[in-house]
Write a structure and sequence with these properties.
The complex is a heterodimer of chains A (290) and B (574). By secondary structure, chain A is α/β, with parallel strands linked by helices. Chain A contains eleven helices and eight strands. An eight-stranded mixed β-sheet of chain A has the order 2-1-3-4-6-5-8-7, with helices on both faces. In chain B, the strands form three sheets. In chain B, strands 6-5-4-1-3-2-14-7 form an eight-stranded mixed β-sheet. The chains are: A alpha/beta (290), B alpha/beta (574). The interface between A and B is large, with 56 and 71 residues. Strand 2 of chain A pairs parallel with strand 15 of chain B, so a sheet runs across the interface. The structure holds thiamine diphosphate (TPP) and iron/sulfur cluster (SF4).
Chain lengths: 290, 574
C-alpha cells in the first residue's frame, strides 16, 4: 500500500475536541481518503451542522460551510445542485443528522444527489454536554436520562437503506485504515453515500466506549457479506449490542444519482455559466402574457 | 352606469371553473387593447366553497377590480342568492336556466337566462360548458369582439387533439352569443394598446430570471405556489435549478447553499413557511450569503386564512431570526414593481451579501393585472453581482475583511488557494470561530459593526417614495404593498368630489429612510392605509423616526380594500 501524504489537507488550526475524542479519527480518515484520491482541496466543500463534530470543516483544508444545527444536508445539496463540479461532503453528529435533521436525512437518501455524508456517531449530544441522542442505547444513563434512556435507539443504517441511499457503510474511529478506504469508496460512489462513523465521546458517553466497541466489532468483508444484496444488508444492519458489523452494508450501482437526472445540473450546473439571458430569451419570456 | 368600463363577477363553487372564465375574459380584453384587472376570492377547498372572481375591463389601464359588478354570472343557485343584490342598477344577471331558478326579479336588472340543455350541441352538453355559453352571452351584451374570443379559445385548446374541443367550445360560444337579444353600450371600444396580463407572482418570477436568478427552491404554500409552477415549467428553457424540497427549512438552507456556491438564489413561501425559515435567514446574515426570500402574505396568524389577503407579516419579516444582522425588506406596490424589484432584490443581496426579503400578499400574488407591454422592459434590468474576486495576494484570503462599507470581497468555492469556512457561529475576519471557548469581545464587536455597517450604505441608496397628487392636500394617504392601486383610484374618486389629496407609497420598507418622516411632516392630515389590524408600517416608522401617523384605515377581514370602501373610510377624516 503506497504511503499517502495528508499534509495537503491539513491546516494550522488545531482541533478543539477533547483528547481522545473519536472525531480525530474521522478527520484523519477523511484527510487520508482525499489524499488517496488526490483531490484538489479547492474543489472540496465540507458542510456541517452544529455540534462538536460539526466543527470539522475548520480543521481540514478546503472550502467549508458551517451551517445551522441539523441543516448540513439541505445546504450541501444546494451547493452541489448549483455547482456539480464541486466535491461536496456533509459532516456532523448523530444529534444533528438523526435528530433535528432526520427529515432532511431521509430525503437526501431518497434524492440520491452525489454527496458523501459522514456522521460522527457518538450516541450522545456532546456540545450541549451529554444528553441522550436518537442513537443512544435503551437504558443508557445521560444527563437527560438519569434513570436510563426510556427510548430505543434509531438505526441509521436501516433508515438509510430503507430511504433509498445507494451507498451505506459504517466505520469505527478505532480502525483508521479501514475507515479511510471506505470513505474513499463513498466519495467515488456516484450518489448519496452515508458513512456512519462510530466516534466515541470520551467525555460524556460512559457506556459506548472504545473498549466496548473493540469487544464487539467485526468486519463485513471478513464474513463474505454481499453489499449488493439488500436483504443481506438489512439483516446485517440489524445487528447491535452483541456483534457490531463495520464496513459497507449496501451498494446500489443501478439507481441514477439526482445530478445525472436533472437536466440543468447534468449539464454542468449554473455557477460556471453566464447568467444573463440572451436577447432572444428576454423577448420571449414575456410573450406568454400577451 | 360608468362609461368606458365593465365589471363582471363570476360566482360559483370550487370546481365550477370560475377561474377559466376569468382567464378567457382577461385574455380577450387584453388582446382587444383594453385594461384589465381580475381578483379571485376563493376558499381553501378543492371542491365546494364559495368562489368568486371579479374582472374589470376598461378602455384605460385599471388598478383595481372595482366594487360592485355590472354583470353577474352565477354558476349555481347558492351563488345567485349570495350575489344577486350586488349587481349595479341597470346591470345584468347572465345565468344557465337549467341550474339557476330566478323567482323574484329585480326591476332594475336585466335577466338573461339561457338553457345549456336546449342550446348546446349534443357533443358539448357537459355541465362545465355552461361557462362557455355564458361567456358567449356576455360578449354579445358588452360588444366585445367575438372573433377574437374564438381565437383565444382556439389557442387555449391548441394542438391537434385540442381542435375538436376548441370546435365544441366555439359552437357553444355562438349559441350563447346568438341567443342573447339584449345589448348595452358600456362605451368599451377596442384600443390600439398592447397589454400583458400578469400576476404579481409571475412578474416576480420573470423579473428574477431576467435578473439572473439561477436557483429557485420552494415548498408549496398559498399564495406563493404559482411562482414554483412558473419556475418548474421554465427551468430547462432558461437553465435554472428549480427544486421542490421536503420543507421550508430545507428550501431556505438549500438556497443559501446555492448562494454560497455562487448562484443567484431565491425562494418563496407564505408566513407559516417564512416562520420556519427564519433561523436560516439570520444565518445568511451571519455568513454574509446572498439570498432573496419572497413572503407572499395571507391572513394570519397560524395557518389563518389560507386564501385571503392581509399585510400582517411586516413585523415578522423585521423580527425574522434571533439577534441582529443586516437585511433589507422591500414591498413591491404592483406587478410592474414586482418585475423590477425582484431583480433589484437579487442585486442588493449579492452586492451587500445579505438576505433580502420581498413582501407581497395574496392580492398582488394572484391578481391578474393588465400592464402596457412597454412597462415591463427587460432591457431596464441590470445584473449587479458585487465584488467577486478570483485571486488574493499577500497574507492569504480574509473572507470577512473589515471594510468601510462592511462588504468584503467574495470568492466562490472552487477558486484555487482561497479556502475559507463560512460559519454561522461568530467568527473573525478569516472565518475562524470566536464563539465558545475563544470568545473575544473585541473581535465580536468588530465583526458586528462590520456587518451592521452595510445597513448605512443600503439605506443611502434606497430611493425616496414619490408623492403623487396635489401639493397642498386636504388629506395625505400613506400605504405600502398591494394597496397602491386602490389608494390611487380612491384619490381619483376624491378629486372628482373636489377633495385635494395626495398619496405616498413606500416600497423600500427597511432599513427605514429617515427622510420619509420629513416628507410626511409637511402635510397636516396624514392617514395610513394598511391591510392589517395594528398598522405595522406606522409603528415601524414611529419606532425608527419618531414620526407618528395617528390616523389609520385598517382592514383585516381577509378581503382587499375596494375604491368605494376606502372612499367612505377616508371621508371620516375630511
Ligand atoms: C436549533 C438548535 N437547537 C439546539 C441547538 C443546541 N445544540 C448545539 S449542538 C447540539 C447537539 C449536538 O449533538 P450531535 O449533533 O450529536 O454532535 P456532537 O456534539 O455530539 O458531536 C445541540 C442540541 C442549536 N444549536 N440549535
Ligand atoms: S465532548 Fe465528546 S464529542 Fe465533544 S469533543 Fe469531547 S469527546 Fe468529542
Amino acid at each position: 500500500m503506497p504511503v499517502v501524504d495528508i499534509k495537503k489537507y491539513q491546516v494550522e488550526l488545531n482541533p478543539t475536541w477533547c483528547p481522545g475524542c473519536g472525531d480525530y479519527g474521522l478527520l484523519r480518515g477523511l484527510q487520508t481518503a482525499l489524499a488517496k484520491l488526490d483531490i484538489d482541496p479547492s474543489r472540496v466543500v465540507i458542510v456541517s451542522g452544529i455540534g462538536c463534530s460539526s466543527n470539522l470543516p475548520h480543521f481540514i483544508k478546503g472550502y467549508g460551510y458551517h451551517s445551522l444545527h441539523g441543516r448540513s444536508l439541505p445546504t450541501a445539496q444546494g451547493i452541489k445542485m448549483a455547482n456539480p463540479d464541486l466535491l461536496v461532503i456533509a459532516a456532523g453528529g448523530d444529534g444533528d443528522g438523526y435528530g433535528i435533521g432526520v427529515g432532511h436525512f431521509v430525503h437526501a437518501c431518497r434524492r440520491n444527489l452525489d454527496i458523501t455524508y459522514v456522521v460522527m456517531n457518538n450516541q450522545i449530544y456532546g456540545l450541549t454536554t451529554g444528553q441522550t441522542s436518537p442513537t443512544s442505547d435503551f437504558g443508557s444513563k445521560t444527563k437527560s436520562s438519569p434513570d436510563g434512556n426510556y427510548e430505543f435507539g434509531l438505526n441509521p443504517i436501516l433508515v438509510a437503506i430503507a430511504s433509498g441511499a445507494t451507498f451505506v457503510a459504517r466505520t469505527f474511529s478505532g480502525e483508521p485504515e479501514h475507515m479511510s478506504e471506505i470513505i474513499a469508496k463513498a466519495i467515488q460512489h456516484r450518489g448519496f453515500a452515508l458513512v456512519d462513523d462510530i466516534s466515541p465521546c470520551v467525555t460524556y458517553n460512559k457506556k459506548n466506549t472504545y473498549q466496548w466497541f473493540k469487544e464487539r466489532i467485526y468486519k463485513l468483508e471478513d464474513v463474505g457479506h454481499n453489499p449488493y444484496d439488500i436483504s443481506q444488508a438489512m439483516q446485517r444492519a440489524s445487528e447491535w449490542e452483541d456483534k457490531i458489523p463495520i464496513g459497507i452494508f449496501y451498494i446500489n450501482p443501478d439507481k441514477p444519482s439526482h445530478d445525472q437526472i436533472d437536466p440543468v445540473i447534468r449539464d454542468g450546473g449554473v455557477v460556471n455559466k453566464p447568467i444573463e439571458l440572451t436577447e432572444e430569451q428576454k423577448k420571449e419570456i414575456l410573450q406568454a402574457f400577451l | 352606469m360608468e362609461q368606458g368600463e365593465v365589471i363582471i363577477r363570476v360566482a360559483g363553487s370550487a370546481g365550477d371553473g370560475v377561474a377559466s372564465v376569468g382567464d378567457t375574459l382577461s385574455k380577450l380584453a387584453s388582446r382587444s387593447g383594453l385594461g384589465v384587472c381580475a381578483y379571485n376570492s376563493y376558499q381553501s377547498v378543492i371542491r365546494g366553497g364559495f368562489v368568486w372572481l371579479q374582472i374589470r375591463i376598461s378602455n384605460e389601464k385599471v388598478y383595481t377590480h372595482g366594487d360592485n359588478p355590472h354583470i353577474l354570472i352565477p354558476l349555481n343557485q347558492a351563488e345567485y342568492e349570495r350575489h344577486k343584490d350586488s349587481v349595479l342598477p341597470g346591470g345584468f344577471i347572465v345565468y344557465n336556466e337549467d341550474k339557476v331558478k330566478v323567482t323574484e326579479k329585480r326591476s332594475d336588472v336585466n335577466y338573461v337566462g339561457l338553457s345549456l340543455r336546449q342550446l348546446a350541441p349534443e357533443q358539448a352538453k357537459q355541465p362545465i360548458m355552461q361557462n362557455t355559453l355564458l361567456v358567449g352571452s356576455v360578449v354579445k351584451i358588452t360588444g366585445l369582439d367575438r372573433d377574437l374570443l374564438e381565437d383565444v379559445v382556439r389557442k387555449s385548446f391548441g394542438g391537434k387533439k385540442g381542435e375538436e374541443v376548441a370546435k365544441a367550445n366555439i359552437d357553444v360560444i355562438n349559441a350563447g352569443y346568438n341567443n342573447t337579444n339584449i345589448t348595452y353600450d358600456f362605451g368599451i371600444r377596442k384600443q390600439n394598446k398592447q397589454y400583458y396580463v400578469i400576476t404579481g407572482n409571475y412578474a416576480i418570477a420573470t423579473g428574477a430570471v431576467i435578473g439572473g436568478c439561477k436557483f429557485y427552491s420552494a415548498y408549496p404554500m398559498t399564495p406563493a405556489t404559482s411562482i414554483l409552477h412558473w419556475f418548474s415549467a421554465n427551468a430547462k428553457k432558461y437553465g435554472i435549478v428549480v427544486k421542490q424540497l421536503e420543507d421550508e427549512i430545507a428550501v431556505i438552507n438549500a438556497a443559501i447553499g446555492a448562494g454560497f456556491a455562487g448562484a443567484r438564489a431565491m425562494c418563496a413561501t407564505s408566513g407559516g413557511g417564512f416562520s420556519l425559515m427564519t433561523e436560516a435567514i439570520g444565518s445568511a446574515g451571519m455568513t454574509e450569503t446572498p439570498i432573496v426570500v419572497v413572503n407572499s402574505m395571507r391572513g394570519g396568524p397560524s395557518t389563518g386564512l389560507p386564501t385571503k389577503t392581509e399585510q400582517g407579516d411586516l413585523f415578522q419579516a423585521l423580527g425574522a431570526s434571533q439577534g441582529e444582522y443586516p437585511k433589507a425588506i422591500i414591498a413591491p406596490k404592483d406587478v410592474v414593481s414586482c418585475f423590477y424589484l425582484a431583480p433589484e432584490a437579487l442585486n442588493l443581496a449579492e452586492r451587500y451579501q445579505m438576505p433580502v426579503i420581498l413582501l407581497i400578499d395574496f392580492l398582488l400574488s394572484n391578481g391578474y393585472y393588465g400592464v402596457y407591454t412597454s412597462e415591463l422592459d427587460p432591457s431596464k434590468i441590470k445584473i449587479e453581482r458585487g465584488e467577486i474576486i478570483t485571486s488574493v495576494n499577500g497574507d492569504g484570503y480574509h473572507r470577512y475583511k473589515d471594510t468601510p462599507t462592511g462588504v468584503s470581497p467574495r470568492v466562490l468555492p472552487g477558486t484555487p488557494e482561497t479556502y475559507y469556512v463560512a460559519a454561522t457561529d461568530e467568527h473573525d475576519e478569516k472565518g475562524i470561530l470566536i464563539s465558545d471557548i475563544f470568545t473575544d469581545e473585541v473581535k465580536r464587536k468588530k465583526m458586528m459593526e462590520k456587518r451592521m455597517r452595510k445597513m448605512e450604505h443600503v439605506v443611502k441608496e434606497f430611493p425616496l417614495p414619490t408623492v403623487e397628487g396635489d401639493e397642498k392636500p386636504d388629506i395625505t394617504l400613506v400605504g405600502w404593498g398591494s394597496t397602491y392601486g386602490v389608494i390611487k383610484e380612491t384619490a381619483q374618486l376624491l378629486r372628482k368630489e373636489k377633495v385635494k389629496v395626495n398619496h405616498i407609497h413606500v416600497e423600500y420598507l427597511y432599513p427605514v429612510k429617515k427622510e420619509i418622516s420629513d416628507i410626511l411632516s409637511k402635510y397636516k392630515n396624514v392617514v395610513i392605509v394598511e391591510n392589517n389590524y395594528s398598522s405595522q408600517y406606522a409603528k415601524l416608522l414611529r419606532m425608527e423616526t419618531g414620526y407618528h401617523i395617528d390616523k389609520s384605515i385598517l382592514k383585516y377581514d381577509g378581503e382587499p380594500f375596494t375604491p368605494l370602501y376606502l372612499l367612505n373610510e377616508v371621508k371620516r377624516y375630511l
